[in-house]
Design brief:
This protein is of the alpha+beta class and about 450 residues long. About 30% of the residues lie in helices and about 30% in strands. The strands form 5 sheets. A 7-stranded mixed sheet has the order 13-12-11-14-15-19-17, sandwiched between helices. The chain has a 4-stranded antiparallel sheet with strand order 3-2-1-10, with no helix packed on it. Strands 4-5-6-7 form a 4-stranded antiparallel sheet. α5 links the parallel β11 and β12. Bound molecules: S-adenosylmethionine. InterPro entries: SAM-dependent_MTases_sf (IPR029063).
């Protein structure tokens, strides 16, 4: 796969992360040139989805084989594929599992169907190479195995996974994968359950929904999941979500009724209307976007959004401690370039080492920090880990290009990757390493803090 196939969705993210002047020998801005080459109409305003139909994972009457299959339609591209896999029935497998990446027809689509050793859930991962982008999505399916009973002949009985045949997944190179990754890492507790219980009781007595803000929300993957989890069933906790981002580039075109998407730069003071409005403020994956000097400013803004007793929930990564499987020098180079880029642009690759102090420093009363080492992350199901690798490396590619274009000649000569040609070579080589099993993981930390009552 050529590197441009992975690059576009992240270039726009990287472009936001700094405003250093472009210094390219050719006189052209390579970032702009690449963006122009890879852009396609509608990409920036609608969130890609995969529509799955005719999904089944089951045995079959009088058969010693078990099967999984489905049709997938990629929107807005409209391309379709048929994916299937079969294997012999055995005692360990009521339904089949197959490694990511099992090719579909056409082979521009691929999938994996694996069992999570801890939760026992099945994880379906789907990827499409559109020729311009690599779209990936993953979803957990509850391990609900049922038996089809053939009354006429017990040999005709077979087991199947009880799951809807038709469903839609958000497909996004970077964010959807990371959301599923966080879901697994946090054992499905993507919002703190103790906080939620307290807030639900308070909201009930005040006869109103719980008010939640997501800052730097991107596609709103987290908020969309919260909205689905807490309002889909009658009698469930009622939530109202506001997703803020500096750009509307990734906002979904038709969000659910209880989510509003709004433009706001977290570096700017919140309006009076926003202040004290929220019970829970969520922030995630902002390390590459917030200069060190802005961390206390942004934390103060988060604090001012919260009502007394409200919670801040910030998850971020530590790019400064990459863990790349040994003997993969190009993937290693990508990982280190990410760190180099953060430093050059005034960000803190070790932010999570210091974030608890920053949070206490602006006056939050209690702070609970949870750190997930790369050892823990590497024990996640392979498809989830793979998603992290796929996500991180393109992210690094994007910053790598931006880094090259922004360095002055002296810094450039000292940089790990010095020109676009070298970058393309490293990227292509890293792609190969990843296909051959290289992984690139970084630690994750979560901070839950509470404002005084
Ligand atoms: C890596 S994405 C994370 C998205 C989301 N939090 C998630 O975890 O799925 C970072 C997001 O922060 C947004 N962002 C960057 N700087 C920002 C700022 N100053 N104010 C608000 N949003 C910002 C970017 O536009 C991008 O959507």
């Amino acid at each position: 796969m050529k590197f441009s196939t992975l690059l576009f969705p992240l270039l726009s993210l990287a472009a936001l992360s700094q405003a250093a002047p472009v210094d390219d020998d050719s006189g052209d801005d390579p970032i702009e040139a690449l963006e122009a080459r890879d852009a396609y109409p509608g990409q920036s305003t609608s969130m890609p989805t995969f529509t799955i139909s005719d999904f089944y994972a089951s045995g079959a009457s009088h058969s010693s084989q078990i099967y999984i299959g489905f049709k997938v339609k990629s929107n807005p591209f409209g391309q379709t594929a048929t994916c299937s896999f079969s294997m012999p029935l055995d005692n360990n497998h009521p339904v089949p599992t197959t490694n990511y990446y099992t090719k579909c027809k056409p082979s521009s689509f691929g999938f994996g169907f694996q069992k999570d050793a801890t939760t026992k859930a099945y994880i379906l991962t789907i990827t499409q190479n559109t020729g311009k982008n690599l779209l990936t999505s993953a979803v957990s399916m509850e391990n609900k195995i049922k038996t089809y009973v053939n009354k006429a002949n017990p040999n005709g009985n077979y087991k199947y996974l009880d799951h809807s045949k038709k469903f839609t997944l958000y497909a996004n190179l970077f964010l959807a994968d990371f959301h599923e990754f966080f879901r697994h890492l946090y054992n499905n507790e993507i919002i703190d359950s103790n906080a939620l219980t307290k807030l639900a009781a308070k909201a009930k007595t005040e006869n109103r929904p719980i008010r939640i803000a997501d800052l730097g929300a991107g596609t709103g993957a987290w908020a969309l999941d919260i909205a689905q989890t807490f309002t889909s069933k009658p009698g469930n906790i009622d939530v109202e979500l506001d997703c803020y981002d500096i750009t509307d580039a990734k906002f979904p075109s038709e969000p659910p009724n209880n989510i509003q998407f709004k433009i706001w730069d977290v570096n700017e003071s919140p309006t009076d209307e926003m202040k004290g409005r929220y019970d829970y403020v969520h922030m995630r994956l902002l390390v590459a976007f917030l200069p060190i000097t802005q961390i206390p400013v942004v934390l103060k803004h988060a604090m001012s959004l919260l009502a007394p007793g409200g919670y801040l929930d910030w998850s971020d990564v530590s790019p400064g401690y990459p863990n790349v499987t040994p003997t993969n020098p190009n993937t290693q180079k990508c990982a280190l370039t990410f760190v180099e880029h953060l430093k050059v642009t005034g960000k803190d690759p070790y932010l999570t080492d210091n974030l608890e102090d920053w949070i206490r420093g602006v006056g939050f009363q209690t702070v609970k920090s949870t750190h997930y080492s790369t050892d823990i992350i590497q024990k996640l199901p392979p498809s989830i880990n793979m998603a992290m690798t796929i996500c991180l490396v393109p992210a690094t590619y994007a910053v790598l290009l931006k880094l090259i274009s922004s360095l002055n000649p002296q810094l450039r000569s000292a940089a790990l990757v010095r020109d676009i040609k070298e970058a393309e070579t490293v990227i292509a080589a890293s792609e190969e390493e990843i296909k051959n099993g290289a992984t690139f993981t970084i630690p994750v930390s979560r901070f839950l803090a509470r404002k005084g009552t």
